[in-house]
């Protein structure tokens, strides 16, 4: 049986910005992330994945996950085995990457994991972690898992199920509908590309001060979205509550805000529902762009202020169809059922 490699990027720093202080969202602490990683490891191992390449981190999420598996498991020379199952076990290796302690680590880890042959990359974190991983994943599909409740790109899914879906994709037993290419926003300043976003690019008035996270609606000036559905949390909910856009639609959306008006109720964070003023909105099609008319200002990319705009800067945001490849969890699970993934004789024999 083919025994492919699956990557894992788990960010111990995700879910700790100011929105967790001013809102009422669930916080997945690092011990909770250890439990999630442990369940992912068990699913991947059980389904016949041969190797996990993971991003090392200061907290040691993978080491703690493996150490807590119990007496039935043994881990020696990088090989994890289950004494109660006759299978060959699974290799667990660090990705070949030098960490800097910055947000770029997720990007460089994704590059290394893709280069080292992974067929799928599990990303545990928020929108920001996924944005960085998407910059380095290339053709390898991401399966994003949220570590909080204020995210749009990653979903709150049970890790055991996510591991099953990732294994099916890596083993080419998830079906043709299991992976799609997401949209992406490209930010250009003075004719040069400066950054990109997966969900939204939100222009806030004023200079870059205070927290990186956006939570005060009175600062909002303009925004561009790749997606926004009725059940979304955060600023994408503004589109979700007016003109919903799904991840697979061939268009995005834009909004112009007016702080003097109160037209729409939007859940901008868990337990925080604000009245927002919207003066203009509409669809943005692939290849089109929106010029930013506000300065000084800062553009928040997927929830974090990143790009500063000075008075003489010319800035635009465009929509591209060439975003990262992403696993559609439900489609992957449905496809794996149709292809007999859970009835494979050899895989069942290895379970004992």
Which strand-content bin applies to the residues?
25-35%
| Rg, nearest Å | 21 Å
Q: Give the name of the CATH superfamily of the largest domain.
A: Probable inorganic polyphosphate/atp-NAD kinase, domain 1
Structural class, by secondary structure, is alpha+beta
- Order of strands across the biggest sheet? 3-4-5-2-1-6-7
The name of the CATH architecture of the largest domain is 3-Layer(aba) Sandwich
Topology, pairings included?
Layout lengths: L4 E6 L8 H4 L7 H17 L4 E4 L6 H7 L5 E4 L2 E4 L7 E5 L9 H12 L2 E8 L1 H10 L5 E5 L12 H12 L8 E3 L2 E6 L2 E6 L2 E6 L14 E6 L11 H4 L10 E7 L6 E6 L2 E5 L1 E8 L3 E3 L5 E5 L2 E6 L5 E6 L4 E3 L1 H10 L6 H7 L1
Parallel strand pairs: 1-2, 1-6, 2-5, 6-7
Antiparallel strand pairs: 3-4, 4-5, 8-21, 9-10, 9-20, 11-12, 11-18, 12-13, 13-16, 14-15, 17-20, 18-19
Helix pairs in contact: 2-3, 2-6, 4-5, 6-8
Give structural attributes.
352 residues, alpha+beta, Rossmann fold, Tumour Suppressor Smad4, 2 domains, 21 strands, elongated
Tell me about this structure.
There is one protein chain. The protein is an alpha+beta fold. The chain folds into 2 domains: 205 residues, Rossmann fold, CATH 3.40.50.10330; 137 residues, Sandwich (Tumour Suppressor Smad4), CATH 2.60.200. Helices cover 24% and strands 32% of the residues. It contains 9 helices and 21 strands. Strands 3-4-5-2-1-6-7 form a 7-stranded mixed beta sheet, with helices on both faces. Strands 16-13-12-11-18-19 form a 6-stranded antiparallel beta sheet, with no helix packed on it. The chain has a 4-stranded antiparallel beta sheet with strand order 10-9-20-17, with no helix packed on it. α2 crosses α3, α2 crosses α6 and α4 crosses α5. The longest helix is centred in the N-terminal third of the chain and has 17 residues. The radius of gyration is 21 Å and the shape is elongated. The model has no long low-confidence stretch (mean pLDDT 91).
